[in-house]
C-alpha cells in the first residue's frame, strides 16, 4: 500500500476514482479480519448512510497489537515522555502494551462494561490514556475521550449525551508548572450524570481526592485483581468504535461517530503514506489524545502500522521553549507532527533553544489543525527541517477521521500554505453558494467531498438528523466540510478557513454559539455576539461583544470582564475564554432580528472602513458606537 513516487500516487489516485471498491478492498486485505466482508461499500449521501466492508468482522486491537507480536513484540510501541524532563519516561513494547491493554480491558469488564457500552475517558497524556482507549476497543466498548481542559459542565454534557456507564480518569494532571485536578472536575460533573455507575481513577499527581464507596475505584488496585488474558471481542466493521465530540456552528458539541473497519483502514493507510513511515522510526505527534489528531495519529494509525509512537505529557514551553527540540534530540525523532499555533509560538522565542539541539534525526515534518501561514511554514522548513525535510500540511477534520488533502512526504512537491492534493480515495469539489460545482483551476469556493472514503463520519450520536442537516443538506449529494478553499493553477488546494460560525483558536475548534451561550449565562448579561479575529499566535482570537443590563464603567468593566471569563471557563473550559470583550449598548441586527456578524467581524479585524452595506440594519447608529468602542479596546 506504500506509494513511493509521484507516478505511483497518480496511478493510485486514478485507481481509487475508477474503482473505489477495488482500491480499498486491496488495502483492507492487508489487515487481520476474523471474517471477510461481503460487500465493500454501500452508500447514499441523502440519508446519509455509508457502510464499508459490510459483514466483515474484526477487532482493531488485534490489528494494532496482536498481529505485531510475532514480528515486533519487543519493539517499542509507545514511548512516553513525562511532563517533567527529570522524571523517568516509560517505553512499552508491543508485548507490554498488549499485556496492559488486556489487563485494563479486564478491569473495565470487572466494573460492568460490556460490548456497546459507552466509556468516558478524561485523563492526562499518560500511557494509561492510550491503554484505556485500546482496552475499550478490545471489548467492544465505545470510548468517548474528553480533552483534559474541558470543564465539569462540558464533561457532564458529553457523558449524558452518550449515556456513559463508566468514567476513566486520574487524580490530577501535570501540564508545565501547573497541576490540574481532574478527579475533582469529574466529581462536579457526576452530580448531574445518573448513567455513570463506576469511576476508575489512576494516581498521577497524588493530589487528595474523594473516593465514593461503591462508585470510585483505584485503577492500580483493580489491575492487581485481573489477568492479562482478554480475547478480543469480534466486532462488525460497522460497529461503533468511538464517539468524539466536536463543535459546530449551532448548539452543543455533537458526538461524531466512527466505526471499526473503515476507520482502521483509512488511518493506517494515511499514516503510512503521508508520513512515509519506515520500520524502526519514531513518530512524534504533539496533539492531545483528546482530539481527533491524537486518536488517529498517536494511537490507531501508528499502532495499526506497527510503528513507534511518542506520547508527550507536557507543553512545548516548559521548562523552557526548547522542549520539543529536546525531545527530538533525546529520542532521535524521525517524524514530527504539530500545529501551526505551536510553531508560531515557538518562533517568537528566537533560535537559541533550537540551535543547541541536534535535530538531524528528523525526516518529515507535519502540520495540522489550521491554516499554516507562510512565515511559520518557512521557519519550520528553515530552522527545524533545515530545508531537507518535506513538510506535509495535512487538511482534515474530526468528521473525516483521517487526513484528506495533503502532500505525501517526499513524493508530492510542496508549496507553502498549500495542503496540495487529495489523497487517493478523496474526491474534493469546490462549490458556489448555490451548490454549483466550480470546475477548473484558479478558482475558489466551499469545499465539499463527493464520494465516501472509509473513515467518513457515520452519524452524530443519538441524533442522525443532525448529522444529515449539518453535513449533507447544505449541498445535495455532497459532504460539506464547512471550509473555504482555493484551487490554484496547478490544481493544488489551499484551505482558507471556516466559512461557518466555527472558530479555530490555537487549532482548537470552538463554536461561536457555544461561547455566546456561556457568556449569556453570566449574571447581568443580556446578549452577546462572538466572532473570530486574526491573532498572531493563536491563528484566531475570540472577540465578544456583550450587552450588559447596565453598561459598566471603567474599573467595573474590567472586573466584570474577568468575571465573564471565569464564567466561560466554568461552563466550557479555559480554551474558550474570549481574548477581547467589548461592552456595547446594542448589536447590529437586520430588521428580522439576525445579527450581522459580517460587520462585527470586520470591526474585530480593525477593518472599519469597509463595512459594506449597513442600510438594512434596524439601527445603523449602533455601528458607529461599536466602532468607537473597538478603537478604545484595541488601544487597551
Ligand atoms: O478548518 C479546518 C481546520 O480545522 C478544522 C477541523 O477541526 P477539527 O475537527 O478539530 O480537526 C482538526 C485536526 C484534524 C477544519 O475544518 N484545519 C485542519 N487542518 C487544516 C485546517 N485548516 C487548514 N489547513 C489544515 N492543514
Q: Could you name the key traits of this structure?
A:
636 residues; alpha/beta; 7-stranded mixed β-sheet; 19 helices; binds adenosine-5'-monophosphate-propyl ester; AMP-bd_C; ATP binding; AMP-binding_CS
Question: How would you explain this protein's 3D organization?
Answer:
The protein is α/β, with parallel strands linked by helices. It has 19 helices and 30 strands. The strands form eight sheets. It has an eight-stranded mixed sheet with strand order 12-11-8-6-7-14-15-23, with helices on both faces. The protein has a seven-stranded mixed sheet with strand order 5-4-17-16-18-19-20, with helices on both faces. The protein is globular. Adenosine-5'-monophosphate-propyl ester (PRX) is lined by residues 246, 292-293, 368-371, 393-398, 419, 481-483, 495, 497-498, 504, 509. Residues 246, 292-293, 368-371, 393-398, 419, 481-483, 495, 497-498, 504, 509 line the site of adenosine-5'-monophosphate-propyl ester. Residues 514-594 form the AMP-binding enzyme C-terminal domain.
Amino acid at each position: 500500500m506504500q506509494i513511493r513516487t509521484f507516478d505511483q500516487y497518480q496511478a493510485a489516485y486514478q485507481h481509487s476514482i475508477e474503482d473505489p471498491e477495488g482500491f480499498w478492498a486491496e488495502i483492507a486485505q492487508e489487515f487481520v479480519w476474523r471474517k471477510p466482508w461481503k460487500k465493500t461499500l454501500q452508500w447514499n449521501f441523502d440519508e446519509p448512510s455509508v457502510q464499508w466492508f459490510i459483514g466483515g468482522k474484526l477487532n482493531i486491537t488485534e490489528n494494532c497489537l496482536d498481529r505485531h507480536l510475532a514480528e515486533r513484540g519487543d519493539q517499542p510501541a509507545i514511548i512516553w515522555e513525562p511532563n517533567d524532563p527529570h522524571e523517568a519516561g516509560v517505553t512499552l513494547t508491543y508485548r507490554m502494551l498488549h499485556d496492559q491493554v488486556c489487563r485494563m480491558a479486564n478491569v473495565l469488564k470487572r466494573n460492568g462494561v460490556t460490548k456497546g457500552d459507552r466509556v468516558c475517558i478524561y485523563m492526562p497524556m499518560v500511557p494509561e490514556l492510550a491503554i484505556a482507549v485500546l482496552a475499550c476497543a478490545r471489548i467492544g466498548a465505545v470510548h468517548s475521550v474528553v480533552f483534559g481542559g474541558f470543564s465539569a459542565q462540558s464533561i457532564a454534557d458529553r457523558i449524558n449525551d452518550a449515556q456513559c456507564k463508566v468514567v476513566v480518569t486520574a487524580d490530577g494532571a501535570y501540564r508545565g508548572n501547573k497541576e490540574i485536578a481532574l478527579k475533582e472536575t469529574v466529581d462536579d460533573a457526576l452530580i448531574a450524570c445518573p448513567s455513570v455507575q463506576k469511576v476508575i481513577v489512576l494516581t498521577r499527581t497524588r493530589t487528595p481526592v474523594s473516593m465514593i464507596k461503591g462508585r470510585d475505584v483505584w485503577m492500580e488496585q483493580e489491575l492487581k485483581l485481573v489477568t492479562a488474558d482478554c480475547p478480543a471481542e469480534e466486532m462488525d466493521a460497522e460497529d461503533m468504535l468511538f464517539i468524539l465530540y466536536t463543535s459546530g456552528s449551532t448548539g452543543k458539541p455533537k458526538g461524531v461517530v466512527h466505526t471499526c473497519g473503515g476507520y482502521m483502514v483509512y488511518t493506517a493507510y494515511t499514516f503510512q503514506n503521508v508520513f512515509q513511515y519506515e520500520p524502526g522510526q519514531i513518530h512524534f505527534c504533539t496533539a492531545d489524545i483528546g482530539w481527533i489528531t491524537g486518536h488517529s495519529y498517536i494511537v490507531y494509525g501508528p499502532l495499526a502500522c506497527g510503528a513507534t509512537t511518542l506520547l508527550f505529557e507536557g507543553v512545548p514551553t516548559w521548562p523552557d521553549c526548547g522542549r520539543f527540540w529536546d525531545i527530538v534530540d533525546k529520542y532521535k525523532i524521525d517524524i514530527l507532527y504539530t500545529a501551526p499555533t505551536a510553531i508560531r509560538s515557538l518562533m517568537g522565542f528566537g533560535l537559541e533553544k533550537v540551535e543547541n539541539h541536534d535535530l538531524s534525526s528528523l525526516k518529515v515534518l507535519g502540520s495540522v489543525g489550521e491554516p499554516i501561514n507562510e512565515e511559520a511554514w518557512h521557519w519550520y522548513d528553515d530552522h527545524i527541517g533545515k530545508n531537507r525535510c518535506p513538510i506535509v500540511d495535512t487538511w482534515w477534520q474530526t468528521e473525516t477521521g483521517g487526513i484528506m488533502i495533503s502532500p505525501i512526504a517526499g513524493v508530492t512537491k510542496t508549496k507553502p500554505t498549500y495542503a496540495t492534493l487529495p489523497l487517493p480515495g478523496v474526491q474534493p469539489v469546490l462549490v458556489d453558494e448555490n451548490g454549483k460545482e466550480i470546475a477548473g483551476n484558479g478558482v475558489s469556493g466551499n469545499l465539499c467531498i463527493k464520494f465516501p472514503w472509509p473513515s467518513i463520519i457515520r452519524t452524530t450520536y443519538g441524533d442522525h438528523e443532525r448529522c444529515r442537516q449539518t453535513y449533507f443538506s447544505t449541498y445535495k449529494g455532497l459532504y460539506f466540510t464547512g471550509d473555504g478553499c482555493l484551487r490554484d493553477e496547478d490544481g493544488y488546494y489551499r484551505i482558507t478557513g471556516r466559512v461557518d460560525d466555527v472558530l479555530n483558536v490555537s487549532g482548537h475548534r470552538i463554536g461561536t454559539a457555544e461561547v455566546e451561550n456561556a457568556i449569556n449565562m453570566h449574571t447581568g448579561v443580556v446578549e452577546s455576539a462572538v466572532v473570530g479575529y486574526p491573532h498572531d499566535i493563536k491563528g484566531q482570537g475570540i472577540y465578544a461583544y456583550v450587552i450588559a443590563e447596565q453598561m459598566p464603567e471603567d474599573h467595573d468593566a474590567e472586573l466584570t470582564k474577568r468575571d465573564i471569563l471565569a464564567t466561560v471557563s466554568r461552563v466550557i473550559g479555559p480554551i474558550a475564554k474570549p481574548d477581547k470583550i467589548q461592552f456595547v449598548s446594542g448589536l447590529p441586527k437586520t430588521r428580522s432580528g439576525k445579527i450581522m456578524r459580517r460587520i462585527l467581524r470586520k470591526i474585530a479585524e480593525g477593518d472599519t472602513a469597509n463595512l459594506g452595506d449597513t442600510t438594512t440594519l434596524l439601527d445603523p447608529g449602533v455601528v458607529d458606537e461599536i466602532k468607537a468602542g473597538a478603537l478604545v479596546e484595541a488601544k487597551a
